[in-house]
Amino acid sequence: MKKLLLLGTCVCLWTVVSAQKWEGVADTPPMGWNSWNKFACDINEELIREIADAMVDSGLADAGYLYINLDDCWHAPERDADGFPQCDTTRFPSGMKALADYVHAKGLKIGIYSDAGRKTCGGRFGSFGHEYQDALQYARWGFDYLKYDWCESDNINPVGAYTLMRDALRAAGRPILFSMCEWGDNKPWEWAADVGHMWRTTGDIGLSFSEQIVHGTWEQNSVLRCLDLNAPLRKYAGPGHWNDPDMLEVGNGLTENQDRAHFTLWCMMAAPLILGNDIRQMSDQTAAIVTDPDVIAIDQDPLGVQGLRHSTDQGLEIWFKPLINGDWAFCLFNRTKTPREYTIDWQRFNFTDDEVSGRSTSFDTIVYDVRDLWYGGKSFRTDRKHEVTVPAEDVVLYRLTPSAKQPRRK
Ligand code: GLA
Question: Alpha-carbon distance 118 to 151, whole Å?
Fold first, then answer.
């Protein structure tokens, strides 16, 4: 009996000491919408409800987008008398529980935002010193996702701070996806696979394709800077723990070519697809980009391997992503401002992905059927070279599937 009691105590203590993150909430890269890129601090419950309506009515929910995420500035000026967080009742008069219920009733999930430091980046109260209370309140309100920022965090240990919130979320008892937003400052890819479900690998994205946006002491990253910071980290990503090159700017004012390239490259990198535009008034062109099922399938592929930049040929990048059942995604990305004619010689691309998947392209022994995912048309095969024009700042994206008709082996 005594031995049993002792064992019971040990198991119990072990469970308390070694909390784990919630499993099964991000087996493929999370998809949803976040308020920051378009609305910044200007958010309220009416907007969020309209966004939830639009998510369903516009077909985005059917395409796989699930989370409606509030970013900064939902907060009241102060916590309540017991130290629990409370929302700004002028902007959210019905309260957070009612908002979560509304979003859930549409078959969607809802996310909230906080900060590991003393204040959020928008100057609202942070979670430092209130982690367990905050996690409990988010769970009681019915949130399913937490984005956790890193402002006002001087002298706070990042591993400790993010692990503490992971444990608090676990203890609160509601599965909540944990999105870490410390901008890659402390290389979370090296230590956070057991802590968060995704981690930012970059500072903030801005509405610019190739040029940095400079604001005195800080800069917003161009789409291409986010791409270049995220691309080399592929070995750290996988089911349940994704590199996050920041939210999408598609539909916010880039050109159609740039939007298509931005979205495609995020899919090639198995990045979370968190929309940042006003989905209540999306153009047909934007909707066609962000809801394309074949392109989304590249991002959401169950193998969960982040694609690789195989090589670059005078501003033309050649990307591969191993997919389920021996398929590959193949992308040509033209970084330059002039269209580019290119002859694809598949035999130049025989390689093995030693770094992550161990998969080989084997163009010398396997013939693939090739489907053009953006432009359609007749499919072709990899036993011939293929000529293509890649528009400026745009992509060509193919899905390669081992052909039913393989050449006879000699
Ligand atoms: C930081 C984050 C952004 C956004 C703002 C909100 O800059 O990186 O994504 O959440 O804070 O203030």
Answer: 8
